[in-house]
Specification:
The protein has 349 residues and is an all-alpha fold. The chain has one domain. It has 13 helices and no strands. Helix 6 crosses helix 8.
Amino acid sequence: MGERLSRKLADAGSTETLSTRRGPPGLRGRLPIGRFAPRGPSPWGPSVEPAPAPLRLGLGYSLALAAATSFGLGGVIAKGLFNRGYDPAMLAEFRMVIAFVVFLVVIAVVRRDALRIRRADLPLFAVFGIVAVAGVTAVYYQAIKLIPIGVVLVIEYTAPILLLGWARLRGRTVGGRLWVASALAIVGCFFVAGVYDAGLRELNSLGITLAVLAALIFALYFALAERISRSYSTPTLLVWGFGFASVGWTIVHPLWLLPWTTTPPEIWAQIAAVVVIATLVPFALELAAVSLIPAARVGLVATSEPVVGAVAAWLALGERLEAPQIAGGAVVLIAIVLAQTLRPTAGSV
């Protein structure tokens, strides 16, 4: 069976990566067995025969771009709540808890087998959910309280370069075009976020430290998602990731202290929109993308989120969109296209 799969991959022009390989390295070429064996078509339950490499790449990039678009649109809705004085941390906790309940109910009905994980993997899922999923949101919201959001975004979106550096340290090949694309994406984000404005450079050390920490956790989020995706499907990642994220938020701020009964209906409507557009949809798409293409490439595509957010804010909120921001958006898109011109191989990113 392993030889037959190898021949099929070779005929398709194999571009196997760490994110396309399923199971521990020792199982490579053999089929996993037992109740934890992946089921269904990738990424919602990897199948025995992977899709042809070009199809996987195209689908992976499409999912990543759709996720970034959804995150960007959701950010505009969230900004409307913040402008009304709503606490960002409270919104983040609502997002995690409600999303977990929705994922749990839907996946329990549609794919109950995806709820099962090995007991030995609980610590890994705990780190993914509490540190990566909940942590990056918590640290990000604390950072934007201290320094301008544009500065935080530019620092946070250095994560793709951190991922490339980590991959290189682990012996994986990183093509020169990926380094160039990542650098271009950061430069583009710099202009899209308006950080060139002197008024946005009034920084404090704690805010910068938190933004750097957000970038590190953001990189960790992608790295852990890629690692877990070798053995588990996207629904499993979503349920257990958001489950542990909810536990993490409960430790910091108990769920029963949230304003469940005192929140006005119009605020609930906006919270619901943020949960769907900025949480349920994009996280599902992004984690599905990580199961198809290397995490560093998904992180690179994620840098298009500020571009989408800036355009959406211009259309929906009437915010000014200046020429440098438009140019920066074009640079980010060029970076993403450049990354796609380099196909990943078995030993590369």
